[in-house]
Amino acid sequence: MPTLRPNFRGTRHLAAALLAGGALLAPAAAFAETTITAVMHSALRVLDPVITTAHITRDHGYMIYDVLTAVDETFTPRPQMADWTVSEDGLVYTFTLRDGLMFHDGAPVTGEDVVASLTRWGKRDSGGQLIFDVTASLEAPDDKTVVWTLSAPFPPLLNVISKQSAVPPFIMPARVAATSSDETITDYVGSGPFRFVEDAYEPGVSVTYEKFDDYVPRDEPASWMAGGKVVNVDRVVWTTMPDSLTAINALAAGEIDYLEQVQVDLLPILDGAPDVTVEMRDPLGFVTIGRPNFLHPPFDNKKVRQAANLALSQEDVLATMMGSPDYYTVCGAIFGCGTPLGDETGSEPITSGAHPEEAKALLEEAGYDGTPIVLMAPTDVISLTNQPVVAAQALRNAGFNVDMQPMDWQSVVQRRAQQNPPSEGGWNIFFTNWMVPEISDPLINVMVNGRGNEAWFGWPSDPEIETLRAEYVQAADDAARKAVAVKIQAHVMDNVNYIHLGEYKMPQARQNTIQNMIPSPVPVFWAMTKEAD
After folding, report:
1. How far apart are CA 454 and CA 442, in angstroms?
2. Where is the Solute-binding protein family domain (predicted)?
3. pLDDT confidence of 284, banded at 50, 70, 90?
4. What is the pTM of this model?
5. What pLDDT score does 7 carry?
6. Handedness of CA 185, 188, 193, 197 (dihedral sign)
7. What distance in Å separates the CA atoms of residue 465 and residue 241, rounded to the nearest whole number?
8. Exposure of 141 by Cβ count < 10 A (0-12 exposed, 13-18 middle, 19+ buried)?
């Protein structure tokens, strides 16, 4: 181990978290080779992966639930819990569950569970809503079979249900999936490779997962979310360390095994840690965005949204976030630069720097009266702390009255679901990040959903973009899909459904004893091994 000054406060924090998680209830040696201790990008407080798009909740979902189908590293849908056939007319999808599927309470996974899970998911997910628009029936004729019958072809159906994010269709027991899509589940029996240890869970502090011994992985090698989810450790503990320096020192000192996000300007600390590897989890990276609330003034006014877009600069935001241009790219493509649908039409206002005078003129034209805009600013996620600060100053320079309200990220996650006016606990704008794969087409990218109250937080009512998304579904080939995607790009830039702030890559770090990590955009803990020190 490197010679560094011990961070005793971090050690006490870690010990308390592990004790809460049950990891110190037995001698340390008992778990030395089988427990992975990880510091994730955020604390976990919301446990329902359908009710929110928060990445930490999605990550939790992949720990304890499985999915019907999943994309591999080539973005190809593969069987996971089920194989499938499609009728010649493209209207009937028949899924056959594989043998050995079991919930954590010992009950078998049945077609009834799948139907209930897909139905609840379809009420919340952007692409799922479009599929259910053309669903004639979704039935389980027996315990092993699910038949999904459409009233019109939906060629990308398998791509949508196989995606990694934002809301994967996790399979839950039917009794759990019967929970309204507007309410949070309270029963956490899963179908996946790890079991959630509810008694050890301390919201915002520690969460513990144990290997589910009765989980039967597929035979194929693991590839992203597809293939065999073989668990090689007994336990995974996520412990919360909001302070980046504390977390990095804990990793360098061997107190934790894995750090999901490493603050770039602190990377030199790890240069002297020979037992630590710093790496990129995936080559695609992330995008960062600002989302206005369409329900309340002033962002219910298109010209005010356009003024906000003109006020901000991708370069300013990205440079402050990441420090080094080695880790960011100015990019105006809402579906990702370098992706098949990537196009930068209409992005010049946000990619060419800040334009405060033009923004002021638009605000005056819009009749903006100085109404304060409530900007929610998370304080505990290293990839989200700088955007609000840079944006607040840029918006003030353009004439906005900004009320920046600091809070932890999980408070943002809960508050952004509130439709109340800003004066009654609501909000006007917040900033977040997405993996490039989860924004790479109009069915996966939840921010281009224009269904009002059924849309993602911010709730735009945008019939034009819904027409374009339907056109995309029915496009005959890749060229036609790209043409529709360019139209959507131009519309989003003009209407400012959200403020696209460019792309970045965030390094992760691990102890060298941690091996066989899947290079997936989503951090997963199957396949991973922990060698003896």
Report:
1. 16
2. 78-437
3. confident
4. 0.85
5. 36
6. positive
7. 41
8. exposed
